[in-house]
Amino acid sequence: MVSWQNEKECMAKKGLRAWVKENWVDIANKRKDGSYPKCGRSGGEKRKNYPKCVPIAKARAMSKGQRAGAVKRLFSRIHWISNQNKLWWSSIK
To answer: Distance between CA atoms of 20 and 17, rounded to whole angstroms?
Structure first.
C-alpha cells in the first residue's frame, strides 16, 4: 500500500493541479455493480456511509482487505473524535 509520505512526494512531482484532477472515488460506498461512486455528492444525494475518497488508481491497486481496513480506520477516527467532543461538551456543562 502507498504511504501518505509517498503520495505527498508524488503530488510534489506531478503538481497540485494534476493531483486534484485525478479521478477520485468513494471506496466506503460501493455500488451494486461493483464500481465506486465519484467522491462528493450532488444535490440531495444520500449515501450509506461517510465517504473515504482515494484516487481510482489507488483503489484498484488495493486489495479488498486493504480497502476495508482504510474505511474501518476512517470510521474509528470519526467515532473517536465524536466521543471526544461529547466528553468535552459534558465537562463544560
So the answer is: 5
DSSP letter (8 states) at residue 3 = -
Query: Grid coordinates 486489495 are at which residue?
Result: 63
DSSP string, 16-70: HHHHHTS-EEETTS--TTS--PBSS--TT---SS---EEEHHHHHHS-HHHHHHH
**Cα(first)–Cα(last) distance of the chain, in Å?**
44
| Grid cell digits, residue 30 | 460501493
Provide the residue ranges of all domains of the chain, joining segments of one domain with +: 4-92
Read off the pLDDT of residues 55-85 as tens digits, 9 standing for 90 and up.
999 999 999 999 999 888 887 877 777 776 6
- DSSP code for 83: H
Cell match 493541479: residue? 17
How crowded is the C-beta side of 8, counted as CA atoms within 13 Å?
Answer: 3
Is this prediction's pTM over 0.70? no
